[in-house]
């Protein structure tokens, strides 16, 4: 595919945020180019793919206008459906709450979203790397050759280390605790609770983070650890912690005994919140590039898609001379900024607790299932805040 020399809007990154941005921009009669560096969209996989149902997402971000593509997910993109979310404390104590969610096949889902963007009229250029960003001019190379393409507006949906964000100085504050590593295995031959998503805590297995088991239907599952490099023991890496969890955890190892690893998944997770600025006179950033993620659970598919929708719509409105491009920054913060900011605050309250098995077990004992659900949704009930602050005082 050979792109045109210029477009109204160029979107970098065909993940959930980028494809959603491209679709909404194209539906607003804009010429759109959607660029993806992967030769095969959705591959390699970089996410476990846990996605609450539409009604739950409305509770998660009640002020947000959810994209239509979150309401209409093809059954072919769904591995399995979960009805319960379970927390397992370091002591083995288990507590949880009911939830309606799907384990999404991200390979198929990402392709589905990109196809929706193309169906709306966007040009799609895969296997192409953006080597340089100079204002609204992009220099690219890849499977189809070298190109220089110019847009009126650039939307960066190119992940935590966004080249678009960097070129426009839209960067998060440097914080080693603000970026996590998600390291995962897809497994076959497991014997797990197919109806539940399980989250495990314990400093020996995931210091300052958590491990998970998500059924993908039948005898398959996604397991992983969400952990920050600043908390690694000397000479250990994320893979070492996942291996320890899979083979040595007193509860999880029994469920995973004899399983075969069919795929390795890895990616960065920006859990430090959003940059101070996400919009300039000619550039917007969305998704992981803009910190559109709920730090308490690492979930970012839905919030990335909300950010993408707003980016695509705002860019189109700007080019129709109906708004300033910088208004995007306040619009997305009005719709989901409180939940994202609150989740970062809760994550910071939990950071020290998760390094103490005794205190983490105490926290899980004291917090009710309803309060756990609220925390997962980026909310902080006053009773929980007082409990966490009291436990933190004990640490210092």
TrEMBL record:
One of its GO terms (molecular function) is oxidoreductase activity, acting on the CH-CH group of donors, NAD or NADP as acceptor. The keyword Chloroplast does not apply. It comes from the Archaea. The keyword Flavoprotein applies. One of its GO terms (biological process) is phospholipid biosynthetic process. Residues 181-267 form the Digeranylgeranylglycerophospholipid reductase catalytic domain. InterPro entries: FAD/NAD-bd_sf (IPR036188), Geranylgeranyl_Rdtase_fam (IPR011777), Geranylgeranyl_reductase (IPR050407), GGR_cat (IPR054715). Gene3D superfamilies: D-Amino Acid Oxidase, subunit A, domain 2, FAD/NAD(P)-binding domain. Keywords: FAD, Flavoprotein, Lipid biosynthesis, Lipid metabolism, Oxidoreductase, Phospholipid biosynthesis, Phospholipid metabolism. This is Geranylgeranyl reductase family. It comes from Methanolobus vulcani.
